[in-house]
Design goal:
The protein is α+β, with helices and mostly antiparallel strands and about 290 residues long. It has three domains: about 100 residues, Efflux pump adaptor protein, beta barrel domain (Elongation Factor Tu (Ef-tu), domain 3, Beta Barrel), CATH 2.40.30.170; about 60 residues, RNA polymerase II/Efflux pump adaptor protein, barrel-sandwich hybrid domain (OB fold (Dihydrolipoamide Acetyltransferase, E2P)), CATH 2.40.50; about 100 residues. About 35% of the residues lie in helices and about 30% in strands. Strands 1-10-13-12-11-14 form a six-stranded antiparallel β-barrel. Helix 3 runs antiparallel to helix 4. The N terminus is likely disordered.
Length: about 290
């Protein structure tokens, strides 16, 4: 018989948990993001440049709304902006008013000097008139400078109007907010659209979500952010692997089957994966302690 101390060592060794374990989760691929691209302005669709099944890049032109009226408004706003800019840059009135003040001040100074040399050579009423002319000139300088500031404010307002007109023109061009595959074209050339009407639906493909359920005994509180491997049997490549990361762990546990829902985002290299495919999500790491 073994000594009792040896039995205790054997039992402790047998009960010790393993340092690492692999958890496999049957999962289903779903889209991470899809968007219905809307019309931004009311009007007639002048062109639709995509079809279902077509891959598009972010920023690609999908369709265009007739923009003749918007472009005319943009040209009008540009002309008003340029006119306001010209007025704001015109300093002639300010320079003339300042020069007039210089002349009036010089005349008043000469009159004072004349009176100092020859007493009462210039009448008091004439001196009052000269002083009034100087004061008037100074006020005209203030008025001219104020008019110039107002012209600059108007230039800035017209610039804002012009930029708004440019944005209205841009909203007549419908572009892809993300890269992906066109899955639906709901409006066609010649149809009337209003702001908010969906024209094209795009499904993002470069990143997909693998969704599955993990058993409660395999769950642990540090699952979020853990790397995963997604194994998919592709038609020409069985067992193809794709890297990913756990991005969501459901805080609720299913009371019926004691499972927890888990999502992982997967890089779709070469766009080989498609939503709806079934896959095996493999998590590697420390086994949860009892």
């Amino acid at each position: 018989m073994f000594p009792s101390c040896c039995l205790l060592v054997v039992a402790a060794t047998a009960a010790a948990p393993r340092e690492s374990a692999t958890v496999e989760i049957l999962s289903l691929l779903r889209p991470v993001e899809q968007v219905d691209v809307p019309a931004g302005e009311p009007g007639v669709l002048a062109s639709v440049g995509v079809a279902e099944g077509q891959l598009v890049a972010a920023g690609a032109v999908l369709a265009g709304i007739d923009d003749a009226e918007a472009r005319a408004a943009e040209e009008h706003a540009l002309a008003e902006f340029e006119l306001a800019g010209s007025n704001a840059a015109n300093t002639v009135s300010v320079r003339f008013a300042k020069k007039a003040v210089e002349v009036a001040q010089a005349e008043l100074r000469r009159s004072k000097e004349s009176n100092e040399k020859y007493q009462k050579s210039i009448s008091e009423s004439e001196m009052d008139r000269l002083r009034l002319t100087v004061e008037k000139g100074l006020l005209e300088v203030e008025q001219a400078e104020h008019t110039l500031r107002v012209a600059d404010f108007q230039r800035r307002m017209k610039e804002s109007d012009y930029r708004a007109a440019q944005q209205r023109v841009l909203r007549h061009t419908i572009t892809a907010p993300l890269g992906g595959i066109v899955v639906l074209v709901s409006r066609h050339r010649g149809e009337w659209v209003k702001p908010g009407d969906s024209v094209v639906r795009i499904l993002r493909l470069d990143r997909l979500r693998a969704e599955g359920f993990i058993k409660l005994q395999s769950w642990r509180d540090d699952l979020g952010g853990r790397p995963v491997r997604l194994v998919v049997d592709l038609p020409q490549t069985p067992g193809a692997e794709f890297p990913g990361k756990v991005v969501f762990v459901d805080p609720e546990i299913d009371p019926v089957n004691a499972q927890v829902r888990v999502w992982a985002e997967v890089e779709n290299r070469g766009l080989r994966l498609r939503p709806g495919m079934r896959a095996k999500m493999i998590l590697e790491g420390p086994e949860p302690k009892p």
